[in-house]
User: Fold this.
Amino acid sequence: MADHFPRTPSGLFPSRPPRPTYREPNRVRGGALSAGLGAGAAWMLFLGLLGSDLRSYAWWSVLAGGIAWAAAWILSRQGDRGVAAGVAISVGAAWSAAAIAVAIRWGLTGDWPLW
Assistant:
C-alpha cells in the first residue's frame, strides 16, 4: 500500500536542520529595470550627442558613463536595484558602441583617435 504522507524520522539516521531560506529585501522588478534602461540610454544618448567628432563622442561617453555608474551605485545602496541595474546595462551597451567605433577608426586609419 502506497504511503501518501511523509514519514517521521526514527532518529536512527541523524538529519541536519533545514537550510535557511534567504529572501532579497529589494527585488529587481521589470518596471524599475525598464525605467533604468530608458533613463540610462537617454542620458548616454544626450551626452554623446554633444560630441562633434569621434574623439569628443568617446570622451563624452566615458564621462557620462562614469557619472551614470556613480548614480547607479548610489541607487543600489539606497535599495532601488532595478533602476541601478538598468542604468548599468545601458551604460555598458553605450560604452561598447563607443569602443567599437574607436576600434574601427583605429583599424582603418592606423591612428589612435582618442589623443
The chain has a mean pLDDT of 89. The chain has three helices and no strands. The two ends are 81 Å apart (CA to CA).
